[in-house]
Specification:
258 residues, five-stranded mixed beta sheet, five-stranded antiparallel beta sheet, elongated
Length: 258
């Protein structure tokens, strides 16, 4: 897939020339991390796409005269680049964690947006995330993702209507339940916040923490593999999954059977 090229004149806002140059090197010249003196050995691999098991889905929602992009992936993503139709009237509103840098511009009735950490450290973790939104309604013409192994992935693009960011915290019943050996938890966050999802046994003893990090606004799915914090297989029985997101807390009862 062609990676749309950026030029200095296409960038808006107060991004300086150094930032633009780094972005160009990373996404056009293909250097994985411009700050790495061995960057020549870490080129983005455009000739050998990622494994068929690597999937990236981009969902485009149109609501309230705004275009919002959601991502769902089976692998960690270190860079995303998008091309939309239309003209850029204002800078995109970034929804994903502030550790990612967002650059944008427009030329010839095309809008291009790049998202990555210019320091080469942060990434978009596998799972579901709200990424950014654009003012107005714009068709997503093409996109490319780069995984942690620096392989390019052509995302599947799905257009959706009426998909809204959650306005309240929610924690769904796990599936499957009962389960063996693993189960998946689904929850939604109305804002980026610190999240802790912990598993407790029927005596109230801590078994393990499935999540303990800052997560972005939007829907999320995480899986517990049925092991305790020491890596040992948990015994059959009833457990409680406690999700704390900011000041919100909710617990559900789950059952492990063997």
């Amino acid at each position: 897939m062609r990676i749309p090229k950026f030029t200095d004149s296409m960038f808006s806002g107060k991004k300086n020339a150094t930032l633009i140059a780094v972005m160009l090197m990373m996404l056009v010249a293909g250097l994985a991390y411009a700050s790495n003196p061995n960057a020549a050995e870490q080129q983005i691999n455009t000739s050998d796409p990622a494994s068929q098991n690597s999937t990236v889905i981009l969902m485009v929602s149109y609501e309230n005269n705004k275009t919002t992009i959601y991502s769902s992936s089976t692998v960690d993503i270190v860079a995303l680049q998008f091309e939309f139709d239309g003209q850029l009237t204002s800078n995109p509103d970034k929804i994903i964690t502030d550790r990612m840098d967002l650059l944008c511009g427009s030329k010839n009735d095309k809008i291009q947006v790049g998202l990555l950490d210019l320091k080469g450290k942060a990434r978009i973790s596998a799972g579901e995330h709200a990424v950014f939104s654009l003012a107005g309604k714009h068709a997503l013409l093409s996109a490319v993702a780069v995984d942690a192994e620096k392989n390019t992935i052509e995302p599947e693009i799905i257009n959706q209507t009426g998909l809204l960011l959650p306005d309240e915290f929610s924690f769904e019943q796990n599936y499957p339940n009962p389960f063996n050996p693993s189960t998946t938890f689904s929850f939604s966050l109305p804002a980026e916040t610190m999240v802790n999802l912990a598993i407790y046994n029927i005596l109230g003893q801590h078994v393990t923490s499935v999540v303990d990090e800052v997560l972005s606004v939007g829907p999320h799915k995480v899986t517990w593999d049925g092991n305790d914090s020491d890596g040992n297989t948990a015994a059959s029985g009833i457990y409680y999954a406690r999700l704390k997101a900011g000041e919100s807390v909710k617990s559900i009862k789950i059952m492990l059977v063997k």
